[in-house]
Amino acid sequence: MDYFHFLGIYPYFSYPFFIVVNKTILHLDLDTFYVSVERLINSELKHRPLLVGGTSDRGVVAACSYETRAFGVHSGMPMKMAKELCPEAVVIRGNSASYSKHSDIVTEIIKEKVPVFEKSSIDEFYADLSGMDRFFGAYKYASELRHTIIKECGLPISFGLSINKVVSKVATNEAKPNNQLKIDFGYEKPFLAPLSIKKIPMVGDKTYQTLRNLGIRQVKTVQQMPMDVMQRVLGANGKVIWKRANGIDHTPVIPFCDRKSISTERTFDRDTIDVHKLRGVLIAMTENLAYQLRRGDKLTACIAVKIRYSDFNLYSKQLRIPYTSADHILIPKVLDLFKILYNKRMLVRLVGVRFSHLVSGNYQINLFDDTEEALSLYQAMDHVRKRFGDRSVLRASALEAKSIGRIQNPFNGQPPVVLAHRKQ
Amino acid sequence: MKFIVSSTYLLKRLQVLGGVINSNNTLPILDNFLFDLDKNQLTVSASDLETTISSVLEVESDSEGAIAVPARLLLDTVKTFPEQPLTFVVENNNTIEISSNHGKYALAYADGAEFPKAVELANPSATTIMGDILASAITKTIFAAGNDDLRPVMSGVFFQFSPESLTFVATDAHKLVKYQRTDVHASEVAEFIMPKKPLNLLKGILAGSESEVKIEYNESNAKFSFDNTELICRLIDGKYPNYEAVIPKENPNQLLISRSQILSSVRRVSIFSNKTTHQIRLKIAGAELNISAEDVDYSNKAEERLSCSYQGDDMQIGFNSRFLVEMLNNLSSDEVSLEMSLPNRAGILTPADGLDEGELVTMLVMPVMLNS
Q1: CB–CB of B344 and A367 under 8 A?
Q2: Could you give the CA distance from residue B317 to residue B23 in angstroms, rounded to a whole number?
Q3: What is the value of pTM for the model shown?
């Protein structure tokens, strides 16, 4: 205690923790990123209601412009519904490659200007500006950075500046669109207090309902509650939410994103019971993911298959295996899992494959099971894929499943491209 | 039933036999030693159903009988005695009383008839081999045997007897060891797969032994007899993979290097390799061997350069360093030779010197598929 008093740092919250070092964390978020990129490409789209997302019956809204939000449209909503709400909106299918490209341009600028940054998704960044106050004035520096990005990329961006990631993120959301907000040191709690609990990251629809049923609407109420009560109601998450509501968050800015698993899934345009097609899709997925493993010098030790039936019930099954990245081991195992899993004789809405327990390494050749020809064939196929793209050679059984494949290398240290309607 | 036996003599035998007893048995009787007394011959047996080992002890007695004595209790007791005679007397109330110079100890016993009988080998074939040779054959091969329950044949050591030679092979599909003795012969051609556990026991008992071991075998069981001891075990059923077919015949690239040098280098470098895959990379160019490893998750990296004698094309090959260390450790020669053909084919490790007359060791190690 004496030591901290000596430093002039006092506990200022009502709880028994105190922050030893004040950090300065910046959160940057590109406003309606997909929409902004589309408008950049085609300026005719400016000031018109715009929807980006799947155009099929099953499609969902990945991004929507502020004009459409007035009609009650939000991302994650079925496209059909969005069109009904806002019939005059222009609907664009979207092109993830061009989004990645623009995201990379922004990343480059940020990388150049800040000491440590974390790309937490395709349009979101955290930067640690601790200590920069001494030279530049963090807020001034952040505004300059924001203006540089706007000038050089032509994309609107907002930021929040505070002592930690959570408060900065909330601040950004409050600042939007195309604006900035600084939360002064010590004012985190008062800033959060009047907001709806929905604004706290991690409070999704379910948690929101639970809390509303308890009569909690404002963050203020949570702040006044003891932590134990939250923990009793929401389990371990309750503790985290309580801390966040009080503006406490010690998570560091992590500059590198290490993939814990890789996965892919497919929702069909129309629910299907065609087992042959399902198997083809699973083979295509496995083949592609296995190639991603080999490209990234990774091995997997756990495979999982999931199925969502037309009644929206999700079933999944996983299996531990010895470390491998070979198609001929993974594909039969995935199909075996599918065979066990698919037992309902019901239409299938979605299938997915996921590899986890990843480690760096290469495939250990087996003395008896692997032939030299097969190994050379794999190497040649991977070589072709490296040069001409990951869909350039495939198994005939995987031909039916068109458009399964990813453009990005999942092991490049960047965060996975999260589909818009998924909550992280 | 009553007998007198020297405590250290008994302990020595019991400790050997105790190795076969599992720590948790489904059949409680297997937690016992079977004491079968016939005048001054005491046969002590232990079993785990798969393997039964028995030893004949000279004792002082003129009675007969068979009882099953709790193994743990007996071993723990006998272990504590300095050399002295122990008197075992079977009492009427189903206990056996041991008298030492210090006092008396009673333990409950079970009827010897409850103890499972060892199988009798029906029309076996037989071969004799020096105990020491058998022990070294086991030591040289057993480490390469696998642990995979799905492929039980690979969890044992393959014995291949012929009038020309005896061959012992072990593999886990990633590494393979073939140990051949051309100076020992069998009367006829025979093959069987021995499980690991009895081999480990034999290895322990026979190391440095001068006595002859008589091996009898048929399709399902094998029996090893030596000194006053007999070990009978069930064989692993199944067909051993055709290992000869996977040993590459043409290996144009040959590396000759000091064993201790490459072993210590691989050991050091592998500390910096990935903790799960233990992957290292060998780069050979000219007369230089470059050993490197990297753990990208922690930014650990190591690289060592060794001079070697090398004939062949420059090449790059990846290995699991664990396998290399195990194999190099198991050899005792000063120099080793590593023969290779392609980065996706097995490397063949052989000792370049220090072998006995008629002794042949071949070790195979499969590489990992490096991205070029």
Answers
A1: no
A2: 43
A3: 0.77
